[in-house]
Hints:
Elements: H1 3-28, H2 30-34, E1 37-38, H3 39-45, H4 51-59, E2 66-68, E3 71-74, H5 76-84, H6 93-112
Antiparallel strand pairs: 1-3, 2-3
Helix pairs in contact: 1-5, 1-6, 3-4
Amino acid sequence: xxxEDDLRRIVREELVSALAELRTxxxxxxxxxxxxxxxxxxxxxAGGVSAETVRHWINTKQLRARRAGHRWVVRPLDLEQFLSxxxxxxxxxxxxxxxxLVAKRITKAxxxx
Length: 113
């Protein structure tokens, strides 16, 4: 198994965990299911990715969003659907680039210890 495969597995596990957390959060408060999420909130719920990554998902139409004034907002349902998508399309160049960036950051963080 390669580092990329390990990284994909870890990211998927984190996304599944974030999705489970999102489900419990939105089911515990009915009003929050209708609330729109900011880019920063989406980044946090998607496993702590950067806001830049979320904007990339939005700009490449991977994640549905709409404008609220000058800010992007995402419906919790759209985020849930995005996070629960199957990993079959993981070969997209953007995802590969993102995985490589994450792998570099993990390696760099590990070398500091």
